[in-house]
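ARCHIVE CARD
CATEGORY: sequence design from structure
SOURCE FIELD: tokenized fold
FIELD CONTENT:
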């Protein structure tokens, strides 16, 4: 089911209702050797890359501003193989939450992924594909909690230092939905960047190599930024 969820759209949502459900993903079941070989290639020389369990989205609908989604558990290696193969088979999406972090001078603050990561050099907001840590005991998926958890894990910022907005802006693409939540920090961008860079030196696991300040749309072209990030920033800058 994919009701009202159209690739290429940006949709404002009041909330996201996500549940973990049983699902038989044929791609993962039928391509074990292909997945193993692909993972060996992309993880070679990157010992920090870990084939953990993640949550992918198989069911999606938007009704009255509410995004209703079903997620299932899969191997990260299977997801990466499927993604790099061009998203074959029934509609599956990586539906993840992102902290659209903005300083008090209006600039956005993005992370640059470290060379040891799967997306080395890419520039985007703090985020993570949902996993077991985001699953509540009642079977729902805590995407809102994922926003501040991932931001803290990647930058060292604490919840009490942030202003977390309400609702979401969904950027919908083939194979991906970025659920953007506005997060503010009451510092100018340069001070916020310096704070994050200092905190990052003391993290258990450093995923980011830098913090990038984006003040306007032209600056997005200077970085290796995924198209969905540029689309979101264009949407916000043009609206503002």
């Amino acid at each position: 089911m994919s009701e009202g969820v159209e690739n290429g759209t940006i949709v404002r949502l009041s909330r996201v209702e996500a549940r973990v459900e049983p699902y038989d993903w044929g791609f993962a079941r039928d391509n074990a050797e292909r997945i193993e070989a692909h993972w060996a290639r992309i993880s070679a020389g990157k010992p920090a890359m870990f084939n953990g369990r993640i949550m992918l989205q198989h069911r999606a609908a938007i009704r009255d501003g509410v995004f209703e989604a079903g997620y299932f558990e899969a191997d990260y290696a299977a997801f990466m193989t499927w993604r790099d193969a061009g998203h074959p088979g029934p509609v599956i999406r990586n539906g993840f939450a992102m902290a659209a972090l903005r300083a008090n001078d209006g600039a956005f603050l993005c992370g640059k992924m470290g060379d040891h990561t799967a997306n080395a050099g890419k520039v985007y907001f703090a985020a993570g594909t949902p996993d077991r840590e985001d699953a509540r005991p009642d079977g729902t998926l805590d995407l809102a909690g994922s926003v501040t958890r991932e931001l803290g894990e990647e930058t060292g910022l604490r919840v009490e230092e942030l202003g977390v907005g309400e609702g979401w802006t969904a950027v919908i693409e083939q194979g991906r939905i970025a659920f953007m939540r506005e997060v503010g920090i009451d510092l100018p961008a340069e001070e916020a960047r310096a704070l994050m860079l200092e905190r990052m030196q003391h993290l258990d696991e450093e995923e980011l190599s830098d913090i990038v300040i984006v003040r306007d749309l032209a600056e997005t072209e200077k970085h290796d930024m995924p198209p969905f990030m540029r689309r979101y920033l264009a949407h916000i800058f043009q609206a503002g």
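CARD ANNOTATION: Residues 143-155 form the longest helix (13 residues). The radius of gyration is 18 Å.
SHELF: design records, drawer C
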